């Protein structure tokens, strides 16, 4: 059985979770201990005691630890990718790439640990000098989703540790295997006991305990908007620092002057790869009427060429949906789209494969309008809709007609329209002639409106969440 990691010790939980593969319902990935509120409180106490010790380590020692973690992840990326694909359903090539990205993230923040800077200023008052210093926040709760089970934990844990914080890591229930493998690597990096803790178990129990604990000074969360709102309601009143990355309903605008082949690839890659289970996935294709039919024909032809299958099969382009509940939600939205009057032009059906798994064909709706639920609510599956518009101005209006604002894309050869879109679309990230899903680890990640709350993740800007500023005055 795979145990939790609390105060430097592997600990049994109060229950055990069986982890099965979505590609094969008979494939037991492993047994994983489930922590409860008491385990969580014990981990919080350990983290509170360890944090000042870790923060007092030299930047070089912290950098060396993170570099060691990153090196082992990169050396084992194929093994870790295989595990990831098996338990989450992402096809093997994508899973290996994700593991590699996690290793690169740790190495990036190993460098950032050495580059924490402040400011030295003369005061407006004679004889007084001013120092602006960055210090660690303290104990940080990290709550991660199932769709990127090693990369998202990496881009939260690595900066938290780099800047001297202690970590309480709560992974998603669906993917304890990837979380445990990452934790096992971190456990051997020479951190003081209690600096890093793994708490596998129910979010309603562990997450609530983290939200309620005064010692947990900050929480970084990625998941649904509803859960993010509950965290804000629980931890916000006690003035905990919050970083919430939540939903998306990302538009891809395709103008009549676009390179059609390029636009189709952006659409299919962005909407359907990783089984559409990305918060940055394109789910609304907003297409000028002049190119609409050619775009639809080309997308459906491309979808016909994709094979949905076992995540470990080299022939698979798209793996299974992550679990039965998510699959049912996808199918429910197919029914909703049909009820609303949209036309299902491709897919949306259950698929039978050699192994019993959660398989569905990628779905494309036509004749959608911006007021439909399938155009407003996040589905989080391989489902997209096409909204036809007259011109660029109408496309921009529809793109901004959403409660979300994470990622937005435009396919066009017009510099004028691309530049205007980058400035005026209401999203935290903008892609021109590239898929809405797919971001770099060394630049900021985050959105606007209901997609994000708090400082940005990733890159050098991660320091804004994981450190606080102190202003010190000195008179000689």
Report on the structure:
- With about 475 residues, the chain is an alpha/beta fold.
- The chain folds into two domains: about 5-245 and about 450-475, 3-Layer(aba) Sandwich (Aldehyde Dehydrogenase, Chain A, domain 1); about 250-430, Aldehyde Dehydrogenase, Chain A, domain 2 (3-Layer(aba) Sandwich), CATH 3.40.309.
- It is about 40% helix and about 25% strand.
- It has 15 helices and 22 strands.
- The protein has helices spanning about 35-55, 60-75, 75-90, 90-115, 150-160, 175-185, 205-210, 225-235, 260-270, 290-305, 325-340, 375, 390-400, 415-425, 465, and strands at about 5, 10, 15-20, 30-35, 120, 130-135, 140-145, 165-170, 195-200, 215-220, 240-245, 250-255, 280-290, 345, 365, 385-390, 405, 405-410, 430, 450, 450-455, 465-475.
- Strands 14-15-16-13-12-18-19 form a seven-stranded mixed beta sheet, sandwiched between helices. Strands 9-8-7-10-11-21 form a six-stranded mixed beta sheet, with helices on both faces. Strands 5-6-22 form a three-stranded antiparallel beta sheet.
- Helix 8 (about 225-235) links the parallel strand 10 (about 215-220) and strand 11.
- The chain is globular and about 75 Å long.
Strand portion: 15-25%
CATH topology of the largest domain: Aldehyde Dehydrogenase, Chain A, domain 1
Q: In CATH, what is the homologous superfamily of the largest domain?
A: Aldehyde Dehydrogenase, Chain A, domain 1
Number of separate helices: 15
CATH architectural designation of the largest domain: 3-Layer(aba) Sandwich
* Strand neighbour order, sheet with most strands: 14-15-16-13-12-18-19
**What integer value in Å does the Rg equal?**
23 Å
Q: What about the largest sheet?
A: 7 strands, mixed
Average pLDDT for all residues:
97
**Count of folded domains:** 2
The outline comes out as globular
Low-confidence stretches: none
> According to CATH, what is the class of the largest domain?
Alpha Beta
Q: Helix content range of the residues, please? A: 25-40%
Tell me the structural class: alpha/beta
Number of strands: 22
Head-to-tail CA distance between termini: 61 Å
């Amino acid at each position: 059985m795979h145990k939790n990691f609390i105060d430097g010790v592997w600990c049994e939980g109060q229950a055990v979770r069986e982890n099965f593969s979505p590609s094969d319902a008979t494939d037991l990935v492993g047994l994983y201990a489930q922590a409860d509120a008491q385990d969580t409180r014990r981990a919080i106490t350990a983290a509170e005691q360890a944090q000042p010790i870790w923060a007092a380590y030299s930047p070089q020692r912290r950098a060396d630890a993170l570099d060691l973690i990153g090196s082992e992840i990169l050396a084992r990326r194929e093994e870790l990718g295989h595990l990831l694909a098996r338990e989450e359903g992402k096809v093997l090539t994508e899973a290996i790439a994700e593991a590699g990205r996690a290793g690169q993230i740790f190495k990036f923040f190993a460098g950032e640990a050495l580059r924490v800077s402040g400011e030295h200023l003369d005061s407006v008052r004679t004889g007084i000098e001013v120092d602006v210093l960055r210090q660690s926040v303290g104990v940080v709760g990290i709550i991660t989703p199932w769709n990127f089970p090693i990369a998202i934990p990496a881009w939260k844990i690595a900066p938290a540790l780099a800047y001297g914080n202690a970590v309480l890591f709560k992974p998603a229930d669906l993917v304890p295997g990837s979380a445990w493998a990452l934790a096992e690597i971190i456990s051997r990096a020479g951190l003081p006991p209690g600096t890093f803790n793994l708490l596998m178990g129910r979010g309603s129990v562990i997450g609530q305990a983290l939200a309620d604990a005064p010692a947990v000074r900050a929480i970084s969360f990625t998941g649904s908007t509803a859960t993010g709102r509950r965290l804000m309601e629980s931890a916000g009143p006690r003035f905990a620092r919050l970083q919430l990355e939540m939903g998306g309903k990302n538009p891809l605008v395709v103008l009549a002057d676009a390179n059609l082949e390029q636009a189709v690839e952006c659409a299919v890659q962005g909407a359907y790869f990783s089984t559409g289970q990305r918060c940055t996935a394109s789910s609304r294709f907003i297409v000028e009427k002049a190119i609409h039919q050619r775009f639809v024909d080309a997308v459906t032809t491309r979808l016909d060429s994709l094979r949905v299958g076992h995540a470990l099969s080299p022939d698979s382009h798209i793996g299974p949906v992550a679990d039965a509940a998510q699959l049912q939600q996808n199918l429910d939205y197919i029914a909703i789209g049909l009820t609303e009057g949209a036309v299902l032009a491709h897919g949306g059906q259950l698929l039978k494969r050699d192994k019993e798994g959660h398989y569905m064909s990628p779905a494309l709706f036509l004749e959608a309008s911006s007021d439909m639920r399938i155009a407003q609510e996040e589905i989080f599956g391989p489902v997209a809709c096409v909204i036809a518009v007259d011109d660029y101005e109408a496309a921009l209006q529809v793109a901004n007609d959403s409660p979300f604002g994470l990622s937005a894309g435009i396919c066009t050869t017009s510099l004028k329209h691309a530049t205007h879109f980058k400035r005026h679309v209401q999203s935290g990230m903008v892609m021109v002639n590239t898929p809405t899903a797919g971001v770099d680890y060394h630049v900021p990640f985050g959105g606007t409106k209901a997609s994000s709350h708090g400082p940005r993740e990733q890159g050098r800007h991660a320091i804004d969440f994981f450190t606080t500023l102190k202003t010190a005055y000195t008179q000689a």
